[in-house]
Amino acid sequence: MASKATVVVAMSGGVDSSVAAALLKDDGYDVIGVTMQIWQDSPDQTKGAGCCSLGAVEDARRVAARIGIPHYCLNYRDFFAEKVIDDFVEEYRRGRTPNPCINCNRYVKFDALLSQARQLGADYLATGHYARIAYDDKRGRWQLRCARDASKDQTYALSYFTQEQLSRTLMPLGDLRDKAQTRAIAARYGLAVADKPDSQEICFTHGQSYTRFLARVAPETVSPGEVVDTSGKVLGHHDGIAFYTIGQRKRINVGSSVPLFVVQIDAAENRVTVGSDDELKASELTADGINWVSDDDADRVMAKIRYNMPAAPAVARLDDGVLRVRFDQPQRAITPGQAVVLYEDDIVLAGATIRCAVAEEACDRVQKTCQPSPVHACA
């Protein structure tokens, strides 16, 4: 079979990227496996901790040997630390809840690694993500579309693609029926990672909790402070803002006859505000850093504010570079630092970073300025 083109496959050592490489090899591509060295020097480093660890490199090499492709390990440690880890730490210092996987995809995989693949003469970069890429002749644009298996869809974490990047990226798992099919394919190829569990941890924390990691690199985020209600009354004390996120109920060590949830984190004052479930709800959010993916405009959309939740109907508009998303129904626990991703059917329109949730009575429609309520404050 004549080779179609050359593709670099980002191999994390897991079953998904391994199957992606095997499928592309069988489809006639000239495949090169690459694992990114992103782990940091740490006394807590373990051989098998997380994707792209020392253990993951060994798994990727074995897979590459099995399917008959070359494999290389490229050093992205310093770049990953700058673009992903430093931002992760800074966001927690600001009292926000970051999504490091989005920054890894945005800056490391589909920017730096794709650029290096092109420099090496490859036509494409491929990954084991569950998403689909297609060209829309009518709009004259590449589209990022949800995976066939909605339960595995990863488009929420891929919302910073550019048109050029989409045109140079392959995601062969997007059309698979489910994860069981992926594992069955891996078993058919005789890959040792067929039954390897999915990684659930943050890769750069080396198997420890993210709060333990933050305690080492940003001890101010685990400094005790006040827990107050929405009127400002002190109810108790917290262990550090790093332990909390918007909507959280655990670790609120104050006496109350009703359930209390985190509704605001004030990093400057080292204060956590708690309130009722109703006080978590907001009808609108503002976001910045918008990236148009498959389209360059939107109005009526489906908007998703968290990876593991369904999208909700909303209206989106731009005001001086700030994205405003107004939901048909109030949404619970809109969290600064997380992404908001806009969809039309199964097409990803755009992504942005949530700046604040806006309570109904706090939005000045005439001035079009965000006036956050005491509960839903801009971070």
Layout: helices, strands, pairs:
Elements: E1 6-10, H1 15-26, E2 30-37, H2 54-67, E3 71-75, H3 77-93, H4 100-119, E4 124-126, E5 131-136, E6 141-146, H5 163-167, E7 169-170, H6 179-188, H7 210-217, E8 225-228, E9 234-238, E10 261-266, E11 271-275, E12 281-292, E13 300-304, E14 312-319, E15 322-332, E16 339-344, E17 347-358, E18 363-364, E19 369-370
Helix pairs in contact: 1-2, 1-6, 3-4
Summed up, what is this model?
By secondary structure, the chain is α/β, with parallel strands linked by helices.
Care to describe what's here?
With 379 residues, the chain is an alpha/beta fold. It folds into 3 domains: 6-205, Rossmann fold; 223-276, SH3 type barrels; 279-370, Elongation Factor Tu (Ef-tu), domain 3 (Beta Barrel), CATH 2.40.30. The chain is built from 7 helices and 19 strands. It has helices at 15-26, 54-67, 77-93, 100-119, 163-167, 179-188, 210-217, and strands spanning 6-10, 30-37, 71-75, 124-126, 131-136, 141-146, 169-170, 225-228, 234-238, 261-266, 271-275, 281-292, 300-304, 312-319, 322-332, 339-344, 347-358, 363-364, 369-370. A hairpin with a 7-residue loop joins strand 13 (300-304) and strand 14. The chain is globular, with a radius of gyration of 22 Å. The model is unreliable at 43-49 and 360-379 (pLDDT under 50).
